[in-house]
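note to self: dont lose this again. the chain is below, predicted strucutre after it. 122 aa total, dont forget to put it in the shared folder this time
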Amino acid sequence: QVQLVESGGGSVQAGGSLRLSCVSSEYTKGIDCMGWFRQTPGKEREGVATIYNIGRTTYYADSVRGRFTISRDKAKNTLYLEMSSLKIEDTALYYCAAGCFFGSGRWSSQFWGQGTQVTVSS
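---
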């Protein structure tokens, strides 16, 4: 079964950096697309970054492009999200996702982790 466990969330000052990690089950190695999503109160869950094993392709939301970097270490069953130049608006509950896809005008995913909170303060 697919299991996703996020870690690395916490509080950081604006302009700082943070790295999120997502440890997954062995089964996840067979899933091509994995990604990070985030959600804030009153807003729908949105795709932050996704990565495909085939073609080594990555996609980023306009709001984080140039500041966030997604990577995947299949040997360690771990997905990472390196965040830098953090802004207050980056504050959200971040979810690790497996089996991501784009449809109906937005990113979504088949499997989800429990989420890890990231809070950016001034």
